[in-house]
Amino acid sequence: MRKLFAALTCLAMLLALSVPAALAGRPVADKTAPTTTASPLGGTFTSAVTVTLSVNEAATTYYTTNGSTPTTGSTVYGAPLTFSATTTLKYFSKDTAGNLETVKSQTYTISGGGGTTTHATLTWTGYSMCSTCHTSQAQAMYQGVHYQWKGSAAEMTTGPTTQGKMDATDGSSALNAYCINIQGNWGPCGACHAGTGAKPVATANPSAAQLASIDCLMCHADATNAPYSRVRNATTGLFEPAAGLDMNLVVQKAGQKPTRKNCLGCHAKAGGGDAVKRGDIALASGTTSDVLYDTHMAMGNGGNIQCQGCHTFTGHRVAGRGSDLRPEDSTLEVTCSTSACHPTKTTATGHVTAAVNDHISRIACQTCHINKYAKNANDTANTEATETNRNWQVGEWNATLNRYEPMPTKANDLIPKYAFWNGTSWGNNAFNAAVLDSATGAYKISRPVGAITDPAGTKLYPFKYKTANQALANGKVVTISTATFFATGNYDQAVKDGMVYMGLPSTTAYSTVTTDELQVLNHQVPPATGNVLACAACHPNASATQLKLITNMGYALKAAQSVVCAQCHTLKAYSGDYVSFHGRHVDTRGNDCSWCHTFSRPEKGLKLP
């Protein structure tokens, strides 16, 4: 037994000695994380600083400059980073064995703030110079609706989760009653895109070249002291500064927050010309001193409010959305009642007249304060008339734009249309089945969603009403080739080219129908005194001059007067004094609206039937 034990012991020793020898040629597993070094390290600098990230082994480095913690889904480091504004750089590396380094952080403080002190010495080297210095801002801008032209459709009740005006075949590409869709016409449409000419590509990690395609000067050039404009290069298809500009001066003066001139350069001319599209925005909004035209933006005795005074920006995402727009850029809401503007106007005692205070929970500020739109400013030579119809069947040569345009109908001093709106919208997009609105006899393009029977939060708003004569084929609105139409004025060929884009034979039969849409009105508010809607504009229904609530807005009785009155008393004659009549039933008896109407107002705490 002892001999057996000794033999086994010797065998075990031999095996123990032989294992290392057998494994001697195998590599040892790498379990050491890489080490990334930033040069220079964070600190305070008097001018822009260029930072290089180096790693001690083969690895991929990821980083962020917006304060968030980087992941392997963050931007990959590929070239030195230049910071001209105070920036926190967070970074880590992952080696080829999969080892992850702990996230490191460096803060580079640029004295003087914002980096604008370095602009005075700049020399124009091309559009990439902006994103090279302002990388985090460019990354934020790249993801925003101003650059992507699409975004979250959280406030749309129809269509996919991401929508916008960018052309696509997945039902996410918006239609409108103006140029219909940008299919086939990226060139002219792209003139108002905040990029250098290439269509944006949706990606969470844009490359340096993609960031360089952002044209920051469209918003941040000094529109007064060093105005900037651009032209498209016919060969490359990309934008370049217009001839004769001192681009050194332009970039030296750039860096300010956008002024009204910057914003209106695109927004006032949307749809093909000044004041054409929105009905409450025109180039005059940036220059007028006429408070009756717009007391908020007028200079002189007006508020001289810049656009971002209401449309606040956070990380290059802007608050506010028109009812006809598919994407929302920011979840922040624009409101009139802020600490800086009208802090009490949405409270139960905010207005001098008690009857007005009774309206604020269901009537938007704009409804009473914008009594007409498409007004003319009294100190501008041009008309601020807006387009009310666009007829694509008739082509007219536009010498200013050097192209054919569909025949427009324009008008001034229009009374708004009114509708209830809960903040969400219905929209018809390219490739969707067209929907006929029996109330208007037109095919719907966009509509605010809301009803008189909605819970609190839905309010009555004013809207621009717009129609167009457009093609319909195979039950869908045709995304006609605007490029074909602008070049030739040939409606039939433009429709055929559009049908081919939609996957239909060019020989498909089509008809021309009327389309329509509603667009919420927010601008051209005059001073309240003498200009706000009076009670008689809406009450009583028979003599109302602006809005007939009973006829058009659902305020009719829920049954015959004899039936309604019989709930409480015998039929009594109505004297026509709607104020005392309403006050007796609601203020004195505390009756809820549902006693007489088809809707209720539970937020008022009144007695139900």
Strand content: 15-25%
Class computed from helices, strands and strand pairing? alpha+beta
With helices defined by DSSP (H or I, 4 residues minimum), what is the helix count? 16
- Computed CA radius of gyration, to the nearest angstrom: 32 Å
As for the number of domains, it is 2
Give the terminus-to-terminus CA distance. Answer: 104 Å
- The stretches of 5 or more residues where confidence is low (pLDDT under 50) are 1-26, 113-117
* Largest beta-sheet characterization: 9 strands, mixed
Helix content: 10-25%
Mean pLDDT: 90
Give the beta-strand count. 23
Shape estimate: globular
Descriptive report:
The protein is an alpha+beta fold and 609 residues long. Helix content is 19%, strand content 20%. The radius of gyration is 32 Å and the shape is globular. The chain has helices at 2-23, 128-133, 135-143, 145-148, 186-189, 208-211, 217-220, 247-253, 260-267, 354-357, 365-369, 482-488, 491-501, 549-552, 561-565, 578-588, and strands at residues 36-39, 43-45, 49-55, 59-64, 75-76, 81-83, 87-95, 104-110, 150-152, 162-164, 230-232, 239-241, 313-314, 317-318, 386-398, 403-411, 417-421, 425-427, 436-437, 442-448, 459-473, 476-477, 511-520. The chain folds into 2 domains: 137-520, no CATH class; 557-609, no CATH class. Keywords: Heme, Iron, Metal-binding, Signal. InterPro entries: Cyt_c-like_dom, GH29D-like_dom, Multihaem_cyt_sf, Multiheme_Cytochr_ET, Octahem_Cyt_c. GO terms for molecular function: electron transfer activity; heme binding; metal ion binding; oxidoreductase activity. It holds the Pfam family CHB_HEX_C_1.
